[in-house]
Structures are given as C-alpha cells and as structure tokens.
Request: fold
Amino acid sequence: MNRVSHPSASGARISQTGGWTIREYDTVDSTNFVAGGLPAWQAVRAHTQTAGRGRFQRHWVSDAGGLWLSAVVPAPSGQENWQLLPLAAGLAVIEALKTLGVTPIRLRWPNDIMVGERKLAGLLVDSFDPQRAVIGLGVNVTNQPATEDISLRRTAIRLADILSPSPSLAVLTATILNHLRQTFETLASGGFAVLQPCLNEMWGGTHQVQVTLESETRQGTFTGVDEHGRLLLRDQTGKLSTLATHEVNLLREI
Reply:
C-alpha cells in the first residue's frame, strides 16, 4: 500500500512525549495514511477521520471524542513476523488501559480490545514501507459511534461508560504510546517468545469460535497463539491446528 494522505487541517500541532513526536490534526481521511510517510517513533492523532478503516477495509466510525491514533514503528525482519505486530500492539494497549483503571478487559484475536462482549478499541497495521509499520488504533472515549451506526449501540463500549471521569485524550495518547514503545523494543530485542506468555493471559480464557477461511469454515476452541503468533484452534476431536493471521477472514465467538 503506498497511498499518501493530505489532511484537511492547515498544518499539524507538534508535541513530544516519551521519545515520540506527535502530529495532531483536526480532521484527516485516515491517520494511518498520514503516518505512512513518517519515520519510526512518530505518531499522528486526529480529532475526526473521514475514512477510518478496520481489518479488511471495513469502515470504522471516527467521530469527535474518540482517540484516532497511528504510531510508526520499525518493521520486523522477515515477512512472517508481520503477523506479530497487531498482537504486540494489542498487548501494549491492554497494558496501557489497565494502568488507567480499565478492568475487566481482554483481547479478541487478532486485533479487537473488548470489555465483556463489547468492543472498546480496534487495531489496524499497515505497511507503506518495508522498513516501517504503521500501527493504527481507534479507542472509543467520549464519542457517540451509535449516532452514525445504530447497530453499534449493542456492540460498542466507551471509556466514558467505564471510567468516571474518563482520561483526557492527551493522557490516553501518552500512556498508550509509552507502552507501545516499551513493547516493540522488547519485541525487537527479545523476540515474540518474551511476549507470548503475557499475551496469552489477555484473551480472557478459552473461547468457542467459528473461523471463516478462504474456502471453509471451522469451529473449535480458541486456546491462544503459538510462538509464531499463529492462532491455536482445537477441534471437537481434540486435534490442534495453527492458522496464520492472513488465512483467517473472520473469527466469531459463539
């Protein structure tokens, strides 16, 4: 992907925190597109997005009051390691939100952050350059996603529904970026094996799931991820199979 975005805001407000440079805009099409041309350890935050995206280009409601943030990190060596990025980012975001008092909270493979059965945040990793990865993050804070999509009233949750008062966007940004940097530096120095045990504690236990692949649908028990970041699925006979992120079109808890 090599798209470059031009934000509608006239210039960015630039600040620094914890080794990061943050560029803040009023409105952009996608913070990931804006961040695509930036070096590592820079981030883009926007008050609103007009073309926010989730996995497989699904639309992501990005109204005022939410955290719409993209962080540029050094890319791992080897294409097979790219599937580790949303997992590492999810771990970092969960740990950041826990420090702010969000509990209970869990991951839903591979890139959703859940409170109970409702979605609080989502992640999207883009590759605009082989040397860098863009970690896109959307967190519902005080925004009103159901005003644009009524179905989100049943499936989404906000920090404002959990914490009183909810953290400011500035505090939330700094906390998440701090944990992202720590986690990705750990990934670079120690490999995924260092993160795997902590990550597998973040799923909220095992879950019965339905997994949609390119040519079939499978059901079984989600038991976490292996040392390569692949989904572990145990079928009714007890057989354990592994599935890479790119092989799974949809995972649904049942």
Remarks:
- The longest helix spans residues 169-190.
- DSSP finds five helices and 13 strands in the chain.
- Residues 207-253 form a domain with the SH3 type barrels. fold (CATH 2.30.30.100).
- Helices lie at 31-35, 84-99, 152-155, 169-190, 192-199.
